[in-house]
Automatic annotation (TrEMBL):
GO terms for biological process: sporulation resulting in formation of a cellular spore. This is Transcriptional regulator, AbrB family. Keywords: Activator, DNA-binding, Repressor, Sporulation, Transcription, Transcription regulation. PROSITE patterns: SPOVT_ABRB (PS51740). It comes from the Bacteria. InterPro entries: B_subtilis_Trans_State_Reg (IPR052731), GAF-like_dom_sf (IPR029016), SpoVT (IPR014213), SpoVT-AbrB_dom (IPR007159), SpoVT-AbrB_sf (IPR037914). GO terms for molecular function: DNA binding; identical protein binding. Residues 5-51 form the SpoVT-AbrB domain. SMART domains: SpoVT_AbrB.
Length: 186
């Protein structure tokens, strides 16, 4: 654990303010849920709550199936990191922060199709000219609950030259996103 040197007092209602610098660094937005942990040493730990992260194993099985059926790299993102990946090296993508393009999809709640050779849309995990991180086309579909909350996204990516994401791939990604959203509501 890393000390910040910042000290805050608890008010009479039991609240404590998380400094703006830490919220910005940790990408904690107003109204975002935090999970509270207490360890044996009496430390209180706040962690961003990820409903999609709770699906962990299920999300992994789902992307494994998507990859088997389509042959594309399939991923599930929460609002901050890649939580499941199939068809690509896990250590390149799993638990890596999502990209600004992916954040835009989540904020705008609209499916994004990218047909730009060499583009890398869904995470910030790769640096340089890494071939594992270059895609010819991608589709990112937001996972939106019936209440309108965006929890993450489903991504299909291709590294095949001249590959394009058509209506079928867009429908597959949107169907997967809709299905995962329903799982979160149950």
């Amino acid at each position: 654990m890393k000390a910040t040197g910042i000290v805050r007092r608890i008010d009479d209602l039991g609240r404590v303010v998380i400094p703006k610098e830490i919220r910005r660094t940790m990408r904690i937005r107003e109204g975002e849920p935090l999970e509270i942990f207490v360890d044996r040493d009496g430390e209180v730990i706040l962690k961003k709550y990820s409903p999609i992260g709770q699906l962990g194993e299920f999300a992994q099985e789902y992307v494994d199936s998507l990859h088997e059926v389509t042959g594309y790299i399939a991923c599930v993102l929460d609002r901050d990191v890649v939580v499941a990946v199939a068809g690509a090296p896990e250590k390149k993508f799993l638990d890596k922060p999502i990209s600004q393009a992916a954040e835009k999809v989540l904020d705008e709640k609209d499916t994004l199709v990218m047909d730009e050779p060499g583009a890398h849309a869904f995470c910030e995990g790769c640096k340089g000219d890494d071939e594992d991180c270059k895609f010819s086309s991608q589709v990112l579909a937001p996972i939106i609950t019936s209440k309108g909350d965006t929890l993450g996204a489903v991504v299909l990516s291709s590294q095949e030259t001249n590959s394009e994401m058509g209506d079928l791939e867009i429908k597959l990604a949107n169907t997967a996103a809709g299905f995962l959203a329903k799982q979160m509501e149950e």
